Amino acid sequence: MTVPTPSRLTAARAALRARPGWRWMALGVVAVGMMLSVVNVSIVNIALPSMAAGLGVDVASIGWVVTGFLVTMATLLPIAGRAGDLWGRRRVFVAGVLVCSAASVGCALSWDVSSLIAFRVLQGVGACAMAPTAFSYAAELFAPEERGAALGVLGGIMGLAPVLSLNLAGVLVSTAGWRSVFWFTPVLGVVVLAGAALVLEEMRGATRRERFDIPGALLAAAGLVGILLALSRGEAWGWTSAATLGCAAAGAVGALGFVLRERATADPMIDLGLFSLRSLRTANLAAGASSSALFGTLILLPFFLVAQRGFSPVELALAISPVAASFVVVSPLAGRAMSHGLVPSHALAAGALLLAAAGTVLMAATASRGSYWAILPGMLALGTGLAAATSTITTTAISEVPRERLGVASALPNISRYAGAGLGVAALGAVLHAALPARLERVSEAVPAADRAAVAGGFRAAMVVATGFLLVAAAAAARMPRQVTRRTVGAVR
Fold first, then answer.
1. Residues 457, 385: Cα–Cα separation, whole Å
2. 415 and 351: one domain?
3. 136 closest CA partner among 370, 344, 411
4. Which of 20, 33, 424, 442 has its CA at 20 to 30 Å from residue 301's CA atom?
5. What is the pLDDT of residues 205-232, one digit of tens each?
6. Distances in whole angstroms, Cα of residue 211 to Cα of each of 81, 82, 83, 268, 424
């Protein structure tokens, strides 16, 4: 096998760059990289019971496999976005793929639960570099009239990732054990790295020599870690426990220190002046509230379907796939509709979120029937509505942001989504568990008929809470600018 020389790689890059569809090839590379980060969020969910049994730990301990990854992702997203602005987006993207792939191998070879959690945290370090890079490339490579379609493609990929991870995990866990779910990332990572070497050009957002704000990054990390741990582990620890209150207090102090630091420094990690843009404020609130409903519902659906129908891991994966599959079909269409001005952005997002809210209302109304086919229409409405809103919200969030701040601004909607996810999982889980007798809190098979009413009642109450989150998101989306332009570029800072 002949190893390509640097000159051959340069010639190959030049040939690809000369093609009319080069921008879409570049978008495809970063989109698949972003898919890796999203896949790693959910691919472990179905495998958690097998992991706990294989490593000999309880459910609370194995929960850190999810919590550690999510908290790391949300904490480091703004840091990765700012690093891309300063040091180059391709460089940060490639480093993220390498770290995530290597950590995935570590997860597959882990020897106890502590090593597994440590490698999952390292996975999160790598994964956090991919999403803001993907959105930054989409914003820079495509003109405003095409940007909605490009971001719609990214939204579709974000929807494809849960479909892929759910079904892949169901098959792998059933046939090859839980360790097999971690080999997907390094295999696909090789393909992404090859694409990055051939297609991606280096891009920087900063136009002058700026310093990376290390104190600001540390304070942001402290604030986000404290708050997200309190939200995500509050139910397990107890909402009034010393651990929960201590994390919340530490997070509040870190967040306050971060705000004070960013106002005082000449080179902030996050320019707080960005929040003077109504587009950024409203879009991030909509992103966070809608993610509370989505992630909370997706966490509870497996429990509900196992308790009511006794679904196996493979059956669960297939049953939940329609929600995620909606993103694959609807997100690109919604992005194209916005790009062509067929529907005002605020109306499209608000209407789509109201459709999603109708879906959770329908799921609440049909929960007592205990039938998958009864709740499927509500699931489809939820998925379709959120898919139509996602690309619109993301496009609006970065539409007025100066080029030198695109990396960190592109990370903000994802931070809102992960923070919202932690809140939604905690809130909906607490509502469901409050309605259940203690004997039903760990369900691995269908429950007796006498207990199914309690499960249905808890799930119905949780869907009412999800509806409230979606109505908040719809109200925020309705406040987004009617017609977004780039006339304010450069006005911030």
1. 24
2. yes
3. 411
4. 33
5. 555 566 777 787 788 778 877 887 787 6
6. 14, 10, 10, 9, 36
